[in-house]
Amino acid sequence: MKKIHIRHFYATNLLKSGARITIVQQLLGHAKLSSTERYLHTSEADLRETIHNMPIYDVIRSKKKYADARFRRLCAKSTGKF
Asked: Which conformational region is residue 41 in: left (phi greater than 0), alpha (psi within -120 to 50 degrees), or beta?
């Protein structure tokens, strides 16, 4: 079983709840953003959900018949796979 530390849990849940990463950084007391990033855990499902909830996704889908496939390719490029 994977051991989860309270700071990792706290930071990840703050981010998922909508807190900006700079706020999480301040709450954890980090001087550098790179320190905060070590405490954040995101999954591929988190990335997909974020992309699909972007307002631009709906705009692109409504413009062209094949825009959804183009958007998927763009997402695949940025996330590694989709």
From this structure: beta
The pTM (predicted TM-score) of the whole model is 0.55
What confidence tens digit (pLDDT) does each residue in 4-50 have?
A: 688 888 898 888 888 888 999 999 999 999 999 888 887 777 777 77
Please provide the DSSP assignment of 26-78 as one string.
HHHT-SSHHHHHTT----HHHHHHHHHTSHHHHHHHHH-TTHHHHHHHHHHHH
Q: Which residue has tokens 């796979």?
A: 81
Burial class (CB in 10 A: 0-12, 13-18, 19+), 25: buried
